[in-house]
Amino acid sequence: MALLELDDLTRRFGGLVAVDHVAMRVEEGEVRAVIGPNGAGKSTLFNLITGVLKPMHGDVRFAGQSLIGLSVPRICQRGISRTFQLTALYPQMSARENVRLAAQAREARHWQFVGGGVTFAAAGRRADLALERLGLTAIGDRPAGLLSHGDQRLLEVAMALAQEPRLLLLDEPTQGLSVEETAQAVDTLAVLLADNSISVLLVEHDMDVVFRLAHRITVLHRGAVIADGTPQAVRQDAEVQRAYLGGFV
Amino acid sequence: MTPLVLPTYSLTLLTEALILGLFAMSLDLMVGYTRLISFGHAAAYGFGAYACGWLLLHTSLPMLFAIPIAALLAGVIAIGVAWVCTQASGVSFSMLTLAFAQLLYAVAYKWTSVTGGSDGLAGIPRRPGPFAFHLFVSRIGFYYLVLLVLLAALLFCLALVRSPFGAVLRGIRENEPKTLALGYNTRGYKVAIVALSYALGGLAGALYAPFAGFANTELLFWLLSGQALIMVIIGGAGTLIGPILGAAFFLTVEHQLSNYTEAWALFFGLIFIGFVMFAPEGIWGLMRARFRRRGGPAELEYRRGVARAR
Predict the structure, then answer these.
(1) Of the candidates A130, A163, A196, which is a domain's last residue?
(2) What is the pLDDT of residues B118-139, one digit of tens each?
(3) Residue B110's domain spans which residues?
(4) Based on the structure, what is the number of domains in chain B?
(5) Nearest CA in chain B to A73
(6) Strand order of the sheet with strand A65-66?
(7) Could you tell me which of A39, A36, A70 has the C-alpha nearest to residue A53?
(8) Domain total of chain A
(9) Which of A126, B9, B20, B65 is the S-S candidate for A103 at Cβ 3.0 to 4.6 Å?
(10) Count of CB pairs separated by less than 8 Å, A with B
(11) pTM score
(12) What is the ipTM score, two decimals?
């Protein structure tokens, strides 16, 4: 059984079909990339999976159970954590507080009213671990709003990781980064994903990033899947080249 | 803390300042910690005052029971109000809180048989008990009661904002969609903090009724909601202690200025503008900055900038 299964998923905005009968699977331990030109429906797909948008047709199954109708926080509690295309952080909190608040959501008593030292300590331990894995330990005490854009992108990944998700959704993790920053971020992510312990659905514009990180690639064009396979196969697919790669790869 | 030597007038003023301080502090939970701007917090104050006054006039409950019951009622009713108001956010949320306060104002004005209409409730007693316990009945005793309640509420709120629950509130304040995406039911958190804030605001009103001996529609009027917001901002939003100082400052300036001019509100407005423009972190923020400077200059600058942007 696949970890995540999208079945005949459809979402329209007025006359525009943003996601058109999409079927897709993410296996346990797999890094699956979704690529496609602007407006291909990548972000809408993320929003359908995470419950921000309701599909008009089709089903999203996670670990065998349908997610349709569940609220955004409930879907996250099931074990799906995401990052946003436009960095979403708590700018006034320190980097560590950002990650700790993310980790706290996984604690049984995350709503604790008074006291809560134990909850904070447990969440703090997982926050430190996540910061370390992304090489952010040194900047843990700085306000998130003061970090460089590259560190902010990685901090958001750290927040998602600290939730120990069964499925990690990364929405263009290198968006807006310089060439050097992108290379660094991809190195860090590659190390992180090397042992196949995390299942990932990755949306990304940058082809180099995708071909470096992904095990399998799904190509979207105008909301529909036009290709699906290993990076090798997708690279050679003629239709993909016409739609997206422009014959350059 | 021993105002035994103070003249009656000052003691009365001090007691009122503490009651208003509790009221402003309760509003800070919403405004400062969750960025839920309420334009109708007088609803909590007035409701608490009317409820406590009614209980003292029409039942034989002692004051020490009537006050917490009134506060509890305010909190319970606020759950319903919050459930409706949190359907919206931003300015719409503020307008809905204002609408509820005005609704309550109209009810208090028209429902004469219960609220006394435009006269309000008068002659509210400070009934002693239970067991003939009368320490808090006298003017000075009541001062200590208010002081005790304020300190207890302050300690509770400080613990609350530093708890895991408080951390989620900060998350909602800084980035609500992100907090939602992290798996927090932000609506539930907002309803809870609004109910708690109204309960504490109701507690302040419930103290005011036996303090002043009356409850009238002025306690539900939007002017009081606006003044509470001013106290929070002048004192320093998001600090709890700041709004208490802000309330004392507001009351002191009002009493001093009104000795000299009818148009004291005009001058107070200028003071308020000065605070917003030059010291957005408020009285408590200024005091804290004097005592300890945390972080490097860049961080300090950043914090000030953020406070200003609010």
Answers:
(1) A163
(2) 888 988 888 887 876 778 888 8
(3) 3-221
(4) 1
(5) B183
(6) A16-26, A4-13, A57-62, A65-66
(7) A70
(8) 2
(9) A126
(10) 94
(11) 0.87
(12) 0.88
